[in-house]
Every structure is written in C-alpha cells, then in structure tokens.
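Just scan my protein:

——
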Amino acid sequence: MKTIIWDVDDVLNNLTRTWLDDAWRPAHPQCKLRYSQLRENPPHRLLGVRKQVYLDSLDAFRLSAAGRELTPVPEVLAWFAQHGHRARHVVLTATPRVAAPWVSRWVFTHFGRFVHTFGVVPSLRRRRGDAVRRVPDTKADYLRWFGHADLFIDDNPHNIAQVAHLGVSCVTMPRPWNRARGGVRELLRRVTDALDA
C-alpha cells in the first residue's frame, strides 16, 4: 500500500484565501489585492507590510474561531471518501507550535478516518519557546527521518523541490504563487493515477 504525504494549509483547506478575504481585507479596507494576484507566498511584500505583520495576522486568524473551523477543499474531501482507503495517509504541516494542536484537531475532525500519522515541522515565530532549534528543520528532513513516502502533495515550490530531491514523486497543489497547471481536479487525477501505477 502506498504512502501519501499531504500538506494541510492551502492543500486540504483554503487557509490563505480565507485569511485574505475574511481577515486581512476587512481589517485593511485600502487593500485591493485579490487572492488570484498572490504571486508570492508569503505575500507580505505584495501587501506592503513587514513579514512579521503578515505572520501575526495569519497566526491570529489560525487561532480564531473562523480559522479553527475552515472548510476542507470539497474536491479533496470527496477524493478521500472515494479513494482514501487505497493508501496510507500522512499529514505533514509547517505551522507554529501554538497552532499545532488546533491544526491536528482540524485534520482529524475532517480526515481522521483516513489519516494514519500527523507530523509537524514547527514554523519559527518570536514567541517564547519557538526560538528553539527545530528538528527536523524542513519537510524534506522530516521525510528523510520518517522513511516512508511514495507521493508528496504541497503548494510550496521550495518544499516540492527539496522532497523531489529525495526521490519522492511530488504533485503541486495549484495556487497563484506556484507554477502548477490545471486545477484541484487535475491534481487529484494525478494522485489517483499514482495509486494505480
């Protein structure tokens, strides 16, 4: 049985779109930037703010009731219902330590009957305790340690490149900040094809 590694934010959910539309833009009515214009992630430069301002806003949203109750990407949830039993599923997220319990709860609430393992590569923040060296430092480091990955799904081109260097097949979730072609359905077709190979 194959092992699929899934990112959470912007793969299993639409965190960035929801944060921009429901948190950032209402708090910054002068912001005219649309989700489709986010050619960079993190988008602080496009927003015209320091990276820490962006991170503070995103983290506050993650910990809010709206952030903890994000809707899963419908097509991905439907794919799990149809094909989830055909593979082992590992969820691997890069999130601040303070958000990890909420992200884990969200994952197991929506995908728990399919997910076998939940892993975290803590994103560094200025909070006390978050300055400690992360082990592992990257998702590639985590997978090198974990040792079981047939397919890796992420939206971050840097993560994709690092994991592909390990010899793992990768699929990029199409988002405005990456060069992935097609849409969510095309991505899921590729995942299904990988299971059939």
About this structure: The chain is about 45% helix and 15% strand. The chain has a mean pLDDT of 94.
